[in-house]
Specification:
There is one protein chain. By secondary structure, the protein is mostly helical. The protein has 3 domains: 151 residues, no CATH class; 136 residues, no CATH class; 102 residues, no CATH class. The protein is built from 18 helices and 7 strands. Strand 1 and strand 2 form a beta hairpin. Helix 1 crosses helix 2, helix 2 packs across helix 4 and helix 6 packs parallel to helix 8.
Length: 504
């Protein structure tokens, strides 16, 4: 249906609240884009990887990292790869184990986004501002990030965006989402729908991990700088809310656990018993994580006071460090070589500290000169001279054929020729030699991708080239493109001079 010509379009609703729901859905959709991109980019890998479902492996990797996270540590990179291998091998059981390992590592590295500088993803979406103007915004996020561990190692941790992907790509408040997940779980268990209850229990566990991650980041920021976190109002309110939340969750989880155990004991079908047992394990894990979170919250106040004392009385830095890239390298890149060399020489002479030159003491030198040489040990029996056997010359083309072909291809620089004409000339020069046209064709095809850089480095004066202009080759023996074959003159001395004059 079409609207009447005179009907004006309704203007968009003004105000940030009118577009916030759409913006949150766009951000949630952007978090799933790296997973879909894996299946789109697997065709670029060197090999046949179409049989693998990369998005499925990526979701399994996020799941493994999330469930392996603790309050202080994260998931080990090698352990995640090892636990991904059975799923990857199940997708392609006939492939080699080395290929399965490569797929698992490729998926995990792409979730970390190893190839980028900040190891993050960026999406662009548009919203309407308070004045009704359309504004494009950048949304930067990460799925799996590498964090330093307490023992000096590197661990993997999932972000809020990755957990949102696991629980349906809904960009919602963590506290509200966890309460909703546990209420949904309690209702499903009371109605005996254990299959749906297991999915709800897994979602509740993910929200528990996400809630703990929010509080962990606040405490980590406090360890770095107490002024970066509002300990006057925000963090005390957050701790109070978290303790009340945990106490409420304890009551709900223990009630849920009682209902699950009763459903497990009363179930008759083996499948219901198995699902009920798995639900018991999941809820127990939620209780364990809440217990750990409660202990950390009780330590938050003493941690703040200790960090406040440590940072307040820490001695100031003796001097500011030097940014080698921003203060030295970047300003010198546009400068000529002579001027830049003076600056770098002065920096390394004065900025790296004095170097003590190596000096030999006279007593050591005298002892070294007067010490007799150590007799060499016997090196073993003398090896006999090897009996070398000359290998037969099994080359297809003779030296005469190569010389004839090169003579035919010795073309003037201003007179290129077609490959068809060169083949006719080769047949006229050697009527009974069928190999000469074949050798000429090989040399012409090789000239289609001439090694220009190698020819410059070796000081060559001429270079044979071939160009395909789309003309087909009409020949009784060969087919393809009727290449234009010619000779290009190289100015090696001029190129070397240009390189020496260009700034470094």
């Amino acid at each position: 249906m079409t609207a009447p010509a005179g009907t004006p379009h309704a203007p968009p609703a003004l105000g940030p609240a009118a577009d916030e729901g759409l913006a949150r859905r766009l951000r949630a959709l952007a978090c799933t884009a790296p997973l879909h991109d894996l299946d789109a980019r697997k065709a670029n890998l060197a090999g046949e990887y179409g049989i693998y479902t990369m998005a499925e492996v990526a979701l399994a990797a996020i799941d493994l990292v999330t469930l392996s996270m603790d309050f202080d540590t994260g998931a080990d990179h090698e352990q995640v790869v090892a636990r991904l291998l059975p799923r990857v091998a199940a997708q392609a059981p006939g492939r080699a184990a080395a290929e399965h390992d490569r797929v698992a590592r490729w998926v995990l590295d792409n979730l970390i986004n190893v190839g980028s500088v900040d190891r993050g993803f960026r999406a662009v979406y548009g919203t309407f501002g308070p004045d009704g103007a359309y504004v494009r915004r950048d949304y930067d996020f990460k799925l799996i990030e590498e964090v330093p561990g307490p023992g000096g190692g590197v661990y993997l941790r999932t972000t809020d965006e990755a957990v949102n992907v696991l629980v349906g790509a809904l960009d919602t408040d963590v506290t509200s989402a966890q309460i909703a997940a546990e209420v949904k779980l309690e209702v499903l268990i009371s109605r005996g729908r254990l299959a749906d209850a297991q999915l709800a229990a897994e979602a509740a566990r993910y929200r528990t991990v996400q809630y703990a991650e929010t509080l962990r980041r606040a405490l980590e920021a406090t360890r770095r700088n107490v002024r970066a976190v509002d300990w006057l109002r925000t963090v005390p309110d957050l701790i109070t809310e978290a303790l009340d939340h945990i106490a409420d969750r304890y009551r709900h989880e223990n009630a849920i656990l009682t209902n699950i155990r009763r459903a497990r004991d009363e179930a008759i079908e083996p499948e219901h018993k198995l699902r009920a047992a798995e639900l018991v394990d999941i809820v127990k894990d939620c209780i364990r994580r809440h217990t750990q979170l409660q202990s950390r919250l009780l330590e938050a106040g003493p941690l703040f006071r200790a960090e406040q004392d440590r940072q307040a009385f820490a001695p100031p830095a003796a001097r500011a460090g030097v940014d080698l890239y921003g203060q030295l390298l970047a300003p010198l890149l546009p400068e000529p070589l002579e001027r830049a060399a003076r600056v770098t020489d002065a920096w390394f002479a004065r900025g790296t500290g004095p170097r003590t030159p190596g000096a030999v003491r006279l007593a050591d030198l005298t002892e070294l000169l007067l010490t007799p040489p150590v007799p060499r040990e016997h090196l073993g029996a003398e090896l006999p001279e090897p009996d070398l056997v000359a290998t037969p010359d099994d080359s297809r083309f003779s030296e005469e054929q190569l010389a004839t072909a090169l003579d035919i291809l010795d073309l003037p620089p201003d007179a290129p020729r077609r490959l068809s004409g060169l083949l006719e000339q080769a047949r006229r020069r050697a009527p009974g030699d069928p190999e000469l046209p074949y050798l000429l064709t090989l040399l012409a095809v090789h000239a289609a991708s001439p090694p220009v850089g190698t020819a410059y480095r070796q000081g060559e004066k001429r270079l044979l080239f071939a160009v395909d202009d789309g003309t087909p080759l009409h020949d009784p023996e060969y087919g393809g493109a009727d290449l234009i074959v010619g000779t290009a003159l190289l100015d090696a001395a001029g190129m070397a001079a240009d390189r020496s004059e260009s700034p470094s």
